[in-house]
Specification:
Layout: E1 4-6, E2 13-15, H1 37-47, H2 52-56, H3 62-67, H4 73-87, H5 90-97
Antiparallel strand pairs: 1-2
Length: 103
C-alpha cells in the first residue's frame, strides 16, 4: 500500500503522515540530516555554474556543470533550478531529495 512507512519505535507499518504510532505512541520526528531546500536553492543560484548544488544533493551529474562551465549554460540552468528548488513544496522536496520520507 502506498503512503505507508515503518514506525521508528516498534517497526509496525503506519501511514506516512501520522505524527505518532497508534500502536506504541512513538513520535515520528522529521529527518535531522536531510538536505535543505534553502541551501540547495542558494547554491544553485550563486554557484550553479560549477554544479555545487548537485554535489550538495549527492548527485554525480554536477560533473557536467564543471565540464561545461565555460559555456555559461550551466549558470543559466543552475539559476532556473535554484528558483524551482525554492518554489517547490516541502513535501515534494523531502520525497525527492530526503530519502523519500515526507517530513
Amino acid at each position: 500500500m502506498t503512503g505507508m512507512v515503518f514506525c521508528r519505535g516498534c517497526g509496525k507499518e503506519i501511514h506516512m503522515m501520522a505524527p505518532s504510532c497508534p500502536s506504541c505512541g512513538a513520535l515520528q520526528f522529521p529527518i535531522l540530516n536531510g538536505k535543505s531546500k534553502l541551501v540547495a536553492g542558494i547554491l544553485a543560484i550563486f554557484l550553479g555554474t560549477f554544479g555545487i548544488h548537485r554535489f550538495y544533493l549527492g548527485q554525480w551529474s554536477g560533473i557536467f556543470y564543471l565540464l561545461f562551465c565555460w559555456t555559461f549554460m550551466p549558470g543559466i540552468i543552475g539559476f532556473i533550478e535554484g528558483v524551482v528548488f525554492l518554489c517547490s513544496s516541502d513535501y515534494v522536496w523531502n520525497v525527492k531529495y530526503n530519502s523519500g520520507l515526507p517530513f
